[in-house]
């Protein structure tokens, strides 16, 4: 199953809390149960629990930066050449008409840029051609979006008139229409108002209602009939809204689509699919969840992770295990990533009981998963289940004795066990001294020395000295 305009975050969970966001860690305060488990501070020699869903955060950001820089470099190169070559200005219109398609690896999309001087020697990319060459009408090529939003010959899909369509190729009245939950195949291309192509797919496959694509596509496709070709105009709130979609769709950008509904069929039962297909589909759902998590759309992220977990299974219809050992291990690995990502999303949504349950599901599959151990220990501590929390956090510390976040949480747990009194303080010996014996120990806090206070003694001396001086003065007067 393909997803459109989805940041292909390789594998969100490199080591997750929700798998690896690249946000800097910050040290948690005691009441902050809702914070993702690895948002901790101190960028010192300690290792830290990385957070963020997911686990490919740093790798993803590096890739996107490289791609953005390369695009910026290409633009700069074009600008320099245009200022030094007067002939380019004369042919500017022609160049715009012959814009060459350039692809990026991080998005399911295509983009156009003005060709450089040596483009003539490059082979033309056939994908740059329109998917609907016979429908290059004025609405698609030059009309302003303001005109299209008020045009009388367009149909309103929604009552707010922010999602509109115009049928270009009608079909027979009784042709099939899709319903929620069915799988469809669509041919589509999408442009901004300046007609920059930002999405294109000759066979986009998705399930209506599962969030595989943006709301505009789902709402439009469900209003179409099989074989129908239509223009779709979508306000930003039905597309990518305030955040836009880096690097190609700006914030609050409306979009114009050309669509054809190619096929409609029932969604396949995951238990009937080959294991390889389940892994592929499950990962696409997980990546969609990562996309939403990075946009802080936590409810949608959690929903995507749950759907991924429904697909990532090796069970067959008869209940037996249908995978070979290698496939089972791969499926389990992806399930752990999804569960860790789901738990972090639940924490962001302040669904603490659900996050604890999900963390325990991770430990059922991978009992030494440090992030799940830490998350579970923190949640248990906040629930007042101190004994179990101590056991879980000690196990996490044994696996990663240099992780400062675990020490911080254990220190808070000890204070809670003592009723908040400063009678004992958590201390852990350096890992290099203890070796494998990293069991924490308690050091009584420094107590005030017993005996007479020095302040009392000093006061007594002052009083005695004052009395002596007074006596001397009185004697001298007599």
TrEMBL record:
Top-level taxonomic group: Eukaryota
EC number: 5.2.1.8
GO CC, one annotated term: mitochondrial envelope
GO BP of this protein: negative regulation of apoptotic process
InterPro entries with a match to the protein in the record: FKBP4/5/8-like (IPR050754), PPIase_dom_sf (IPR046357), PPIase_FKBP_dom (IPR001179), TPR-like_helical_dom_sf (IPR011990), TPR_rpt (IPR019734)
Chain residue ranges for the region called Disordered: 42-97
Pfam hit, one: TPR_8
Keyword field contains Lipoprotein: no
Enzyme class: isomerase
Transmembrane segments: 452-476
SUPFAM superfamilies hit by this protein: FKBP-like, TPR-like
Residues annotated as domain PPIase FKBP-type: 181-265
Name listed for the protein in its UniProt record: peptidylprolyl isomerase
Organism, as annotated: Seriola lalandi dorsalis
